[in-house]
Design goal:
Layout: H1 13-27, H2 39-46, H3 50-62, E1 66-69, E2 75-78, H4 81-93, H5 96-120, H6 123-138, H7 142-158, H8 163-176, H9 185-204, H10 208-230
Helix pairs in contact: 1-3, 1-8, 2-3, 5-7, 5-8, 5-10, 6-7, 6-9, 7-8, 7-9, 9-10
Amino acid sequence: MLWGLRPVQTQAAYNLAVDKLRRQIHLGLLLPNERLPSERALAEEINIARVTLREALRVLEGNKYIVIKRGQHGGAFVEKLEVLDQVAMFRISSDRAGMMRILEFREANEQAAIRLATTRATLPELKRMRAALGQMRDAREPASLKQAETMFTLAMADAAHNPLISHAVEDGLDQMFLPYFVAEFDHWRSVSTNLYSKLLGAIEAQNADQAAAVVGEILARDWVRVKAITV
């Protein structure tokens, strides 16, 4: 007996490219104002035709993720921070219940990842986490801080050595897409650095309970930000 089968939904190739690039922006791996690679290089990297890529870029521009500039110094650029923050706040404010489910999804997967990471982390993942922590300390603006937090969390997920969990952790970060702006940036950076430093220390000490508690603090802080937007 077959159960749970649903009709197959075809997806245009350009939509797949939109999802890939939007995910990079949501994760903070592509920074505000950053210039994307040339059409030829980007099409080859994603493995799609240039005409398909152009359609994807038009969709991203229409959704205010990128801006396409013409002329000698033109190209596709990630939108400025203020515009991306407006996109993020609209997503959150329009679906608070959905954000709660995303946070529950993040908690389930990040807690699973951290408990495995405390016993499975290897030198390459620890190096990535230390590098991300260094970037947090050196961050001078919100975008680079967000990027560092993402890079730390992805390294932590990879340290679980379970590709399904790693992908789920990345999905959760992608779907949450919090705004870049935070009040009192220097204080926020200090708090972030302390939290992730505690987390790295717990991983290196193989203290699963302490590591899980710190992940809980990080997620609780993110939920406070979501609630502040939806009030």
